[in-house]
């Protein structure tokens, strides 16, 4: 065990860090494009319901396990296990989550690398270097390897500084920057022709598709990915929350911020697509479907920025800087999962553990880049379609069926003494025991069949 465990120094610091983990490419890229291709506001409604009814209770399960355990995911889950068999199960769930977080980071870093190169591209153009700008905008092995490595190094540099001076400090700086860029871009896009058509497509629901199983599967998957569930990340972040804090409201804030930012990102991306269309850029395929996600972000939006002339360079820079920042506050949470385990389990010092694990993840990322066609989609499906829902479900089983109810209540009462009489405690334990596992299981099975 390391001598002194880190802890978030303030409530604001925790909220920024956990919201920073939650708010990422999933919100700013995944959510709007999924909404656009799944019936607009109908998807939004399904997402809101599922995020609050299933993802929030599951988030609370993970945060509570972590704060009670005051340790990495494996140790925290073991602390609530009562016999040898359960302790094995704890290892499988905790360690599985750590591997899942590492794998997510390995593909996330590739996408984040694209975002950083897209941020630098307008800078190169402004500086007058056409060669550099072409290299930055065209897919190539050298570009992908370099920027993926660069992004991992950035993540490692923050995580090696620990909880308060690394995660918390940088989340507190980056999250407000992200919000300001987001709002500035929305104001700009709303003033362009075509934006209102996009706004309508986003906000007027087509309810005929709301009970479509495929829509529900995508919405739940999106909610789980977005709240970083099932990967032990929220267990770790929970373990850095002080016992004086009210977990119930902290979890609610994080969920609210995450959902809010996804919603607001939709106000930017979807109108921006229609603005691009108004300028003659294709956004629908010949069959009338929306172009796929990466085409939208890496072709439609840049085409839009190009059409704006010089100001487009600044808008493009701001947009991709926003994406890169969102990716960074998320990736630090993914790296913290394996690092905290290595530090506590093998008594490594934080600096070497971080570099070592960063190097392993870089090797995995490079392998994916070198076998992009076969591995990229596979790793995404493996972690987000299987890993996250299954591990998230198991965390609910831990809290609902294995953890003694009195001890669970005692944990939540710290920082929230009145909880036993409130609505949360009337609903949540029962919910986490039955509703969450069944609903997550159902959605999981239908995603396998679908
Ligand atoms: N929630 C982030 C997003 O929306 C991604 C993320 C961060 C994540 N940490 C995670 C996903 C851990 C799964 C597991 O982009």
TrEMBL record:
Question: Where are its TM segments located?
Answer: 12-29, 41-59, 89-116, 145-163, 175-195, 215-238, 250-274, 311-335, 355-380, 386-404, 430-449
Asked if the Swiss-Prot or TrEMBL record annotates the protein with the keyword Transmembrane helix, the reply is: yes
Q: According to the lineage, what is the superkingdom?
A: Bacteria
- UniProt main location, coarse: membrane
InterPro entries linked to this entry: Na/ntran_symport (IPR000175), SNS_sf (IPR037272), YocR/YhdH-like (IPR047218)
**Which keywords are on file for this protein?**
Membrane, Transmembrane, Transmembrane helix, Transport
According to the UniProt record, one GO cellular component term is: membrane
Keyword RNA-binding among UniProt keywords: no
Looking up SUPFAM superfamilies in the UniProt record yields:
SNF-like
Subcellular location per UniProt equals: Membrane
Which Pfam families does the UniProt entry name for this protein?
Answer: SNF
Membrane disposition: Multi-pass membrane protein
Entries under NCBIfam families matching the protein: Na_transp (NF037979)
Q: State what protein this is by name.
A: Transporter
Q: Which organism is it from?
A: Pseudoalteromonas porphyrae
Lineage runs: Bacteria, Pseudomonadati, Pseudomonadota, Gammaproteobacteria, Alteromonadales
